[in-house]
Every structure is written in C-alpha cells, then in structure tokens.
Amino acid sequence: MIASTIENRDDLVSYLNAAMSLEHATIPPYLTAYYSIHSSTNSDAAHIIRVTAVEEMLHLTLVANVLNAIGGEPDLTGPGFVPSYPAYLPDGEDDFTVDLRPFSPEAVETFCKIERPGKAPSADSRLLKTPDRTTRFLVSSPTDEKMRFYSIGEFYEEIIEGLEKVAANDPGLFRGDPARQMGPEYFYSGGGALIAVSDLDSAQQALRFIAGQGEGLDSGIYDADGELAHYYRFRQLQLGRYYQVGDHPDAPTGPSLSISWDDVYKVKTSVRLADYPAGSELARVARDFNADYGAFLALLTKAFNGQPGALQDGVCEMFRLRDGFNRLVCHPLPGSRGLHAGPTFEIPAAAGPDPQGSPGADETTRTVTR
C-alpha cells in the first residue's frame, strides 16, 4: 500500500495551495470557449459553460476557506499560479492537455475529460508513478514529485484523509481567523453555497462538495444537492439532449439542445503574446487584458485575506474581463490564416509570472503545481 503523502500542517498547506491552482486552471479555458460564441447564438451551450465557470469560482473560494481555517494565506498572484497553456490535467491517464480553445467539439471533449468521474479501482492505485519526463502534472503530489493522482477526485480524497490524520495529532490545526471565512452572504452561484470552515467536519464537507459537483468522484448524474454534476452537463452538449432524473448516464431523455458549431469566433488555440504583431494595437489589447486579469486575481487574494467585501469588487472586475474578451475574439489575428485573437493569460510580473519569461506555444507544456 502506498503511504500517505500528507503528514503535517505544512503538507496540508502545500496541497491546498495546489488545489487552488487546480481549480483556477479550469476557468480560463471555460471563459475562452464561452466568449468565443457569437452573441445571441448557442444559448444552451453558453449557459452550461457560464454556470460551470461560476461554480469553479465557488470551488476556488471553498478551498481558500479551508486554507484560511488552518492558518494559511491564500495567494492567487504568485509565480506559477496561472498555468501556461496547454497544460496537463490528467484524470487517470495523461491522454490530453487543457488548451485555450474556442467553443468546439474538441473543447467540449476536453471539458468532459477534465470533469470525468475518476474513482481509483483501489486505495493502492490512488497514487501513480509520474512518467519519466520533464513535464509535471496539475494533480501531481505537492510533497512527492514522483507521484501523481489517478484523478482530481482522488487528489481531494487524499486531502480529506490528510486533514483527518493531521487533526488527530494537532488539536490546534484549525487556528485560522474566523473573520477570513467567506460565507454564503458573499457569493451566490445557484449551484451551491459557500461553507464557512471552522473544524474538521466543515473542512471535509467543503472538499467533498467540490468533488461531488464534478471534480472526479462519481456520485451519479446528480450531486448530493440535486444539481447535475459538471461532467454530465458537458455530456449533454455531446449527446444533444438534457438529462432528466432517472436517466441512464449515456442516454438523456430531456429536451434537445440546439448547437451551431459555426456561430463561433475561431480563436487561435492557446494563443501567446509572441503570436501578436509587435507594437500592434491588438497586442496592446492582449497585454491590457492580462493586466486586468492580474488585477482580478489580486482582488480575489485581498478578499481571501481578511477583506471579504473585495469579492464584490471582483465581480465588477469580471465585467471588464468580458469587455477585454470581446475586444480580442472579434478580430482576426494577422499571420494566423484567418484565426482570431484571444486572451493569453500571461500575467505581468507585478501580479504573477513574467510574460517575457513564459514559454511559447511550441515549448514544453508545464503545470501550475507549486
């Protein structure tokens, strides 16, 4: 049997920092697909993607609550927090990478792979040896770089069990300032509420909620709150119908979905700043977007570190992000054979990684695990 990779509070802090990075890593791909859709078209798909992206924000905040509860300090602005896309995000196998793509069958396939149920066949297979390569994985163990997890759900199971183990040996584990907790009054997503974390039970409840809503552990088509799990939301786009209670996972019987793959701006996949003509107006807009995204992450960091009211400012910042998306995706990118521009999420050094030091699209894929 493979030994636990969480032995103490420092290990838990490392895992929870990685979990925050992991939850955030899905948001740029979802937003890129969402904003690539032509206005007033594909309303079914747009709604599914938008709601899922908002719930990823909920997951991010729940992890921050757990980290704050054990006395950690959430930071969304440090080097490596935002990944360089494409990034590996294995869910049992290293068979795909996560790209910044326009809404397309390929994007939906990736979303299903991100969210697919992934319970390991046995406790011994939760942790797997990382292949012999230089690339690390988003769900690799923060405390043992030679190991990765069978799935995101199993990654969370490791944290849940680690919390129980460390709490049993450290009665003062939950030493964080209660004023840093984000409660339901600060965030509403429609698909779950924020859980203020103060002890082992509430911490495990928060993390199990994340896993049950779509991040790997298969609790069925619907989660414990009766919400359709993320994986099955995206499967609806592949199968062309909505699920209803009692449906078989591969055979939804609800109303049909209307999808038009052509009513989309064909954004260049995982575009980088290096792809933009030097000195062009479009390059300036791309850099401005990255700066705005860095400011958005800084506001969330402020909210998670004792100023919960800043979360409302973060919501306002999201509207500015929408405008930035639209100013990019509507325009062809010179030299890209008709493909359109898009955000690169290369955050300026003042708020995150130095875009000049980030690898280009043709370089080795890296991950956000710190």
Note the topology.
Layout (H helix, E strand, L loop, with lengths): L8 H17 L1 H10 L6 H27 L17 E2 L8 E2 L6 H11 L11 E3 L10 E2 L2 E6 L2 H18 L30 H13 L17 H10 L41 H24 L5 H20 L41
Antiparallel strand pairs: 1-2, 3-5, 4-5
Helix pairs in contact: 1-3, 1-5, 2-3, 3-6, 3-7, 4-7, 5-6, 8-9
Written account of the structure:
The chain is mainly alpha-helical. It contains 9 helices and 5 strands. It has a 3-stranded antiparallel β-sheet. It has a two-stranded antiparallel sheet with strand order 1-2. Helix 1 runs antiparallel to helix 3, helix 2 runs antiparallel to helix 3 and helix 4 packs antiparallel against helix 7 (230-239). The model is unreliable at 351-370 (pLDDT under 50).
- Which structural category fits the helices and strands? mainly alpha
Query: What overall form do the CA principal axes indicate?
Result: globular
Main sheet attributes: strand count, strand direction, barrel closure: 3 strands, antiparallel
The DSSP helix count reads 9
- Relative strand content: under 5%
**Helix amount:** 40-55%
Mean pLDDT: 84
- What is the spatial order of strands in the main beta sheet? 3-5-4
Name a few traits of the molecule:
disordered C terminus; globular; mainly alpha; 9 helices; 370 residues; two-stranded antiparallel ribbon; 3-stranded antiparallel sheet
